[in-house]
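Quick start: read one record
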Amino acid sequence: MFRKEWDQIPKTHYALFGGGFLLFIAVVLSSEPGFVFVIDHANLLFHEAGHPIVGLFSTRLEPYGGTIGQLTFPVILAITGWRKDKLLLFSAGLVWFFENFLNIARYMADARVLQLPLVGGGDHDWNTILARWDILMYETRIATALRIIGWTGIIASVCAVYVYAFFTRDRNSASLDQKTLVQFDS
């Protein structure tokens, strides 16, 4: 069975990660639904950059470019964490990835009512996409599913860190004891 070996994480980093997550939850719950001020302004930048980049390859796929753009950077962060064996970086990338689902769901739920302000006053991506697929009438149901996926992914990403910590604590303390013995033998 495939097992990933992550770098050891000091206990203080677990505490800081947990504190950061609690702060993140407080900001999410106190902000406008589906929009976390600092994070989602960055996501908006990546979203808007995605349109012309994807548009270079296909004008038909350009409406998808925004969502692709805003999901790309969290995926890159998660892959970087995975490749460098940094569990907290990997988890943070996944949290950011799934947080985007809350923002995307907010935008998608607006596809028929068209009340959200749009950057540049252009076309509404999800109105275009869902109308093209002839499922515009299900925008709020799909948005609700995205919110559920988003919250589930966020919680699972954070829980995985602490589950890993719980199941590796004996191994980590044993390796620390080995290092201590080596130091005393020297």
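Residues 11-185 form one domain.
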